[in-house]
Amino acid sequence: MEKTVVNSWNEWDPLKHVIVGRADNCHIPPEEPALDAKVPEDSDMRGQHGMRPLHTIDLANDLLDQFAKQLEARGIRVDRPTPIDHSLPVTTPDFHTDSQFGCMPPRDVLLTVGSEILEATMSYRCRWFEYLNYRPLMEQYFDEDPNFRHETAPKPRLTDADYRPDYLSEKIGVDKRLKWTAKKFFVTTEVEPLFDAADVLRFGKDLVVQHGFTTNLKGIEWLRRHFSEHRVHPVNFPGDPYPIHIDATFTPLRPGLILNNPHRRLPDDQRVMFEKNGWEIVDAAQPAHNTPPDLCYSSVWLSMNVLVLDPKTVCVEKSEVYQAEQMDKLGMEVVEVELRDAYAFGGGLHCCTADVYRESTCEDYFPNM
Known about the structure:
By secondary structure, the protein is an alpha/beta fold. It has helices at about 35-40, 55-75, 135-145, 175-180, 215-225, 270-275, 320-330; strands at about 15-20, 25-30, 50, 75-80, 90, 95, 110-115, 115-120, 150, 200-205, 205-210, 230-235, 250-255, 255-260, 280-285, 305-310, 315, 335, 355-360.
């Protein structure tokens, strides 16, 4: 096998090497503050925990395997995680939770910036050890690429002080959630840096980071200091009552073009950097489904959770016909990928992948700041 080179500066340049997750042993985690804030009061996920039904795991793995084969058929190298036992509890001096989560969405944990892959802090207790699923790959890359930098952010303590009790004390309802999120009143506090890698979008010299449930301002400040050669821009989307991960809300397709969830539009004051530099922000097409799959945390807007293979080619979930039609009108070749029955394991096509190598350099796409 060819030696590894780690290099990826953006979300759209030609993809040549990627990690695709697995559904093995995936668990619905027990209740905890970060998770409770995310799950709607009327969701079928409330009160459930334990290993997901085996037949759903097998189906999700079949779909993920097929996706990996589609990528390989296009000349893209695909690596897979080594699943740990997610049924094991997580116990630290500060907390205990009875099980873990899974390793379907590497994008949540791993942030590739240039020749560095950074392991995020994570803000769910059940995801504390999730990085271990990817350590064999990180060790391999370290041995094979002399320029690879394997970094890990400071592990947070995740005590109760990291979460606002307001989100746990009552049935909140969507209206109150929208008022709170509009005020940037999220479940995470500012006690210590918290961020998930899936809240970060890479635009060469610029990193756009969502401030929400899983990433706090102190986490964004940590990223700014860590990536000191970059410009780091906090963003938020007031129309989202459950602001977790940016990639079903704001999706760059190529230089100058971004899809934005029409129910979670970027506020006017945060659009300035894009408008000053000639970027077009267009509303994403409506999802093809009115509800998410069974036992799925994510919204129907995984329709726009696409994987860009190069500036003219994009992977879209097979059933998301309206999103595929929009991509075609935007001049992109659509690669259909069946993945909907794996959504419940951690998300869509962008979520279940993590870049290792794109043919890219660190460019400045926002010279007029």
